[in-house]
Design a protein that fits this description.
The protein has about 260 residues and is of the alpha/beta class. The chain contains ten helices and ten strands. Strand 1 and strand 2 form a beta hairpin. Helix 5 packs parallel to helix 6.
Length: about 260
């Protein structure tokens, strides 16, 4: 469903601020893979997601989604293939619009739209059933303005909006990092439910090693713009934070230096 071939990206090349962000990334995801991505600051995690989404062109390599080479496509032409949730809960929803209006916009993504604006009774019932999955009571608040919701409720709503029209790839960029631990756990539970029920091919960047181990069927660790660890199957099920740190030190020759990840 997703293949990255020898992806390179350098910011500010030839200047004092030159930064090699991606250095020959190769990655292949089968349909339904739920891959967690861990790494220290500057490892290339978010840069890799931005490359897949087409935020900017890569310097070298190719990006293939469901058999189609999208390397040269801008982000707006990839949007119909990709669902994305960002770290900031305020991103991804329209605060002054109602919950059902936000969902209607997401539900009609990629479809032809006329000047008439109305949420149909069929859509409203569909939205209620979808919102029940989040277990946050939002199914009874369809006409509430999104700006009145808590950060966790908005993030869960954004997750639902990103997956209403089943995307080829779901990108989650530290989507629980700005939430308190209890709320983050609820959003992660909702993530598991939605991803597993729809068998969505997912990349979830997280700063929390425990979350990276618990969630998904595969874990990759990045360092200096490369994927240095790729763990799946029974090995991932048996993995501990200590095992992960030991393996990172073995393959990279250095200690893992992210207190945020270790203390998460």
């Amino acid at each position: 469903m997703l293949e990255l071939k020898n992806i390179h990206k350098t910011f500010n090349p030839g200047t004092i601020n030159e930064k090699i962000a991606l250095n020959g990334v190769d990655l292949k995801l089968d349909e339904g893979d739920f891959v967690t991505v861990i790494g220290g600051n500057g490892a290339g995690k978010s840069t890799m997601l931005n490359a897949i989404a087409g935020v900017w062109p890569v310097d070298e390599g190719s990006i293939i989604i469901d058999g189609a080479d999208v390397t040269g496509l801008p982000d707006y032409k990839r949007a119909k293939l990709i669902g994305r949730v960002f770290q900031d809960p305020m991103t991804g929803t329209a605060a002054t619009m109602q919950i059902e209006e936000n969902l209607a916009i997401a539900n009609r993504r990629g479809l032809r739209r006329g000047l008439k604006w109305q949420v149909s009774s069929g859509e409203r019932e569909q939205f209620k059933q979808k919102l029940k999955v989040l277990n946050l009571g939002l199914e009874d608040r369809l006409t509430s303005k999104v700006g009145l919701l808590s950060g966790g409720q908005r993030q869960a709503l954004t997750l639902l909006m990103a997956t209403l029209q089943r995307p080829k790839i779901l990108l989650l960029d530290e989507h629980t990092a700005a939430l308190d631990p209890k709320t983050a756990e609820k959003v992660l539970d909702a993530t598991d439910t939605i991803v597993n029920s729809q068998k969505l091919t997912t990349l979830m960047v997280t700063h929390n090693m425990k979350d990276a181990i618990i969630h998904g069927n595969r874990l990759i660790m990045m360092n200096a713009g490369r994927i240095v660890l790729d763990i799946k199957g029974e090995e991932k099920k048996r993995l501990t934070v200590e095992d992960l740190l030991h393996q990172f030190e073995r393959v990279s020759g250095q200690e893992f230096a992210s207190d945020k990840a270790l203390l998460g």
